[in-house]
Automatic annotation (TrEMBL):
InterPro entries xref list: Aminoglycoside_PTrfase (IPR002575), Kinase-like_dom_sf (IPR011009)
UniProt-recorded name of the protein: Aminoglycoside phosphotransferase domain-containing protein
Pfam families the record matches: APH
Domain spans labelled Aminoglycoside phosphotransferase: 79-243
SUPFAM superfamilies: Protein kinase-like (PK-like)
Domain of life: Bacteria
Length: 324
């Protein structure tokens, strides 16, 4: 986009604004993400879901699959509303437009968060991170207690547009088995242990008792998905994939990503250890399969992705008693 293209977005904001500058932000592979600098010395962030801004060649998704790729204004808006109702803060929606009168695509303008990530604060000043960690924990507690009408991405679950014939643990088992088939042909250690790993997945699944309710979860909430505002208050970002699912799926990942800081969250949620065990193994398989797919592209930081594959390969082998 050019300056002339972006000026109309600033003018559309409540009260009208003049655009004084802009920059494209990293992380928008399915939509354009731009910081707009305004004439009152403030700034906002623009999302534009334009085909020209989507760099993925395969955009087919099954709306019944809660793990399908998530992108779109409907998902963002529904997730933002549900998070607010659960007591969790996401970037404020300042303007949404589906009319394509401002730009030939769905757009949203959201608050700009300039305080850095919680992950960076934990690394640089653990003492200062204590208060936002407690706030994030309170958000997660509220989200776990917030019940959804059915399983799936929030927009689909609320609209009833993606009926499910599987429960959460079956979806995770199916995904884990599919990932095992994929990685067994690419990672010799996993290929040699394939039967043992498959048996461990099925055994863990068999121990899970059925459940007929679901919590609101982010799905990939690490400290890198928490930004701080100018007052140091935490805000959950990357919310298009927010769904109704098991809180255990959230906390297995959050516990791993927050590491020693997880206890500082003050989580007050009853988590089923059998679900946690199944989800831990399935998640590590996904963290082998996903990076391996990325390594088939021209992704630049290849050593980083290989490191994830190596670490989670070792974890899968340890979890299933097949490590040498």
């Amino acid at each position: 986009m050019q300056h002339t293209d972006l000026a109309s977005f600033a003018a559309a904001l409540p009260g009208g604004r003049q655009l004084t500058g802009f920059e494209r932000l990293a992380g928008g592979s399915k939509k354009g993400v731009y910081r707009l600098m305004l004439d009152d010395a403030s700034s906002v962030v623009l999302y534009a879901w334009s085909a020209a801004e989507n760099y993925w060649t395969d955009n087919s998704t099954d709306p019944r699959d809660p793990f399908a790729e998530a992108s779109g204004l409907d998902l963002l808006e529904a997730a933002s509303l549900a998070l607010a109702e659960a007591g969790a803060r996401a970037p404020a929606l300042l303007l949404i437009d589906r009319s394509q009168s401002i730009y030939p695509a769905d757009i949203a303008i959201v608050e700009d968060l300039r305080g850095g990530t919680l992950e960076a604060m934990i690394s640089s000043d653990a003492g200062a991170a204590a208060a936002p960690l407690r706030t994030v924990g309170a958000m997660l507690n509220g989200m776990a207690k917030y019940r959804g009408p059915r399983l799936g991405k929030v927009a689909a679950a609320v609209a009833g547009s993606a009926p499910q014939d599987r429960n959460a643990e079956q979806i995770v088992l199916d995904q884990g088995l599919a990932h095992l088939v994929s990685v067994a042909t690419k990672v010799p250690e996993l290929g040699q242990a394939r039967e043992r790993i498959e048996g461990a997945l099925r055994e863990r699944h068999a121990r899970v008792r059925s459940r007929d309710w679901y919590s609101l979860i982010h799905g990939e909430l690490g400290a890198d998905h928490v930004m701080l505002d100018s007052d140091g208050r935490p805000v959950i970002i990357d919310i298009e994939g927010v769904m109704f699912f098991d809180a255990e799926w959230e906390h297995e990942f959050t516990r791993m990503r927050f590491g020693r800081s997880y206890e500082a969250l003050g989580i007050d949620v009853e988590l089923d250890p059998e679900r946690m065990a199944l989800y831990e193994l399935a998640r590590s398989l996904s963290l082998v399969e996903g990076p391996l797919r990325i390594l088939e592209t021209d992704f630049p930081d290849r050593d980083f992705m290989r490191g994830i594959v190596t670490w989670h390969t070792g974890k899968v082998l340890r979890l299933t008693g097949t490590a040498t």
